[in-house]
Amino acid sequence: MLTIDRVSRSFGGVYANRDVTLTVAEGEVRGIIGPNGAGKSTLFNLVAGHIRAESGTISLAGRRIDRLPAHARARQGVGIVFQGARVFPGMSLLANVMVGAHAHTRAGVVAAALRPPSQRREERAIRAQAEDCLSRVGLLDWASRPAEGLPLGQQRRLQVARALAGLPRVLLLDEPASGLRAAERQELAELIGELRRDGTTILLVEHDVGLVTSLAERITVLDLGRVIADGTPSEVTSDPAVIKAYLGTGASHAADR
Ligand SMILES: Nc1ncnc2c1ncn2[C@@H]1O[C@H](COP(=O)(O)OP(=O)(O)OP(=O)(O)O)[C@@H](O)[C@H]1O
């Protein structure tokens, strides 16, 4: 589904990603872990289209996307939940999710707001789809409430719903558990588990190694911009190179994150 082939990107002469290669199969949850500065966010941004690779290719469902701007990648099926992303205040939960769905319509969100008659049917379909996405993340009962003031865990789930509304072929999650309390983390893990059961293809970039090992079929480990291991959770967590990379940062991130 998603193929990243020998992708490199440097900043100021230092490689943040170097010859990164990985393939995510349809329906797979792929974890990306690595110590601080390993290049996880860079990889996420390269796939999302916020930064461009200097070399290498990125393909989604067999089509190259690495030269497309971010919004065009979204249309091709790259769904994103940013690290620390905010919900739109002053809008209901349902409206927040409908914005995600409009990225995929011909009309777009501005035209939809004007609601010419020809688009009313599309609008109804989008609303139904947005409600379905809210239901998938367990927030349908709150659909008409304002999004501001939502607890952080629910904000994350709302962002997942917004990304799902764009009908992604692959869902990129950048540190979705960051800042969440233990109970919220558990709920998020359950949500990702449900998405996996539904067959959603997910690229999960996460500091929380425990969360990733419990959810991902395979894990790719980055260190200093390079892939140092790729395999099942038990394979990578017992890999000496991985253990060394985590211990080498001066703190036992693998144990406490
Ligand atoms: N926009 C940028 N400008 C300059 N250097 C950057 C930029 N983005 C990333 N880097 C550098 O690239 C390297 C990889 O950073 P990146 O943020 O991708 O790592 P990470 O694994 O996400 O780290 P963390 O876990 O701390 O978020 C780091 O050395 C970082 O300083």
TrEMBL record:
<dbReference type="GO" id="GO:0005524">
    <property type="term" value="F:ATP binding"/>
</dbReference>
<keyword id="KW-0813">Transport</keyword>
<dbReference type="GO" id="GO:0016887">
    <property type="term" value="F:ATP hydrolysis activity"/>
</dbReference>
<dbReference type="Pfam" id="PF00005">
    <property type="entry name" value="ABC_tran"/>
</dbReference>
<keyword id="KW-0067">ATP-binding</keyword>
<dbReference type="InterPro" id="IPR003439">
    <property type="entry name" value="ABC_transporter-like_ATP-bd"/>
</dbReference>
<dbReference type="Pfam" id="PF12399">
    <property type="entry name" value="BCA_ABC_TP_C"/>
</dbReference>
<feature type="domain" description="ABC transporter">
    <location>
        <begin position="2"/>
        <end position="249"/>
    </location>
</feature>
<protein>
    <submittedName>
        <fullName>ABC transporter ATP-binding protein</fullName>
    </submittedName>
</protein>
<dbReference type="InterPro" id="IPR027417">
    <property type="entry name" value="P-loop_NTPase"/>
</dbReference>
<dbReference type="InterPro" id="IPR032823">
    <property type="entry name" value="BCA_ABC_TP_C"/>
</dbReference>
<dbReference type="GO" id="GO:0005886">
    <property type="term" value="C:plasma membrane"/>
</dbReference>
<dbReference type="InterPro" id="IPR051120">
    <property type="entry name" value="ABC_AA/LPS_Transport"/>
</dbReference>
<keyword id="KW-0547">Nucleotide-binding</keyword>
<dbReference type="InterPro" id="IPR003593">
    <property type="entry name" value="AAA+_ATPase"/>
</dbReference>
